[in-house]
Description:
Number of helices: 10
CATH superfamily of the largest domain: SPOUT methyltransferase, trefoil knot domain
Oligomer: single chain
Largest sheet: 5 strands, parallel
Order of helices and strands: EHHEEEHEHEEHEHHEEHHH
Strand order of the largest sheet: 2-1-6-5-8
Helix content: 25-40%
CATH class of the largest domain: Alpha Beta
Low-confidence stretches: none
Radius of gyration: 23 Å
Bound molecules: ligand 9D3
Amino acid sequence: MRVDVLTIFPEMFSGFLATSIIKRAREQGQLAVNLVDIRNYARNKHRNVDDYPFGGGPGMVMMAEPLFLAVEDLLAGRGRERPPIILMSPQGAVFKQALAEELAEQEHLILICGHYEGIDERVRQALVTREISIGDYVLTGGELPAMVIIDAVTRLLPGVLGDPAGAREDSFAMGLLEYPQYTRPRSFRGLEVPEVLLTGNHEQIRRWRRRQALERTWRRRPDLLAGLQLTREDQEILAEIAGQAGDEG
Ligand code: 9D3
């Protein structure tokens, strides 16, 4: 996958791109990230890419032209290809695992990181094909959200994670939070590993983990349970959990 990132702060990406799984994906040719400094497409000698809002009001607005020129440059000579042009924006749809999976199927993405108080509306009107937010909190710009998208999408690309089951079998893909995990030693500062995990009884271990995952999800993220197709066994376990929680008062 190729990802073009339009930003006025390309240096923010260097640590991210040079680390761990993202670094390896780039080295293995599964991911190519092209950072485009929007200022390279500014018109004036000060390289301004923002201006005062028509109608007055506080703050500055990111100008349309540098963004149009940058995207046109990226698409020049690439035939009929029309990659998604995604604006990172607090007004976008909230990013979810399902959208990460959808984006991972694309050959090419263009991500635009906004800044200042806003962006000229004509960018949305005539350039952008979708807008994504990463959640309901206020950041200073779209760079961290762009890295979140790249991170979530890259680990879904074929061959990026060693274990092909690993990418899809984790909690959000499965719809449940994860069960507790332990490694050596069995006893740490008086804190013991649950006995069942030491028995070697794989059926009992499977049931214990399923119960833990269900109980955690029920207590912490009941909203996730609502969207799931639960098996008969899951429904029985949940009834047990709800009964015990009722006893606890
Ligand atoms: C002072 C301007 N704000 C008025 C309420 C709007 C605003 C514009 C731009 C607030 C934050 C930002 C910068 N944030 C992003 O560009 C952004 C973002 C975010 O802040 N939270 C979650 N997801 C995203 S995606 C892009």
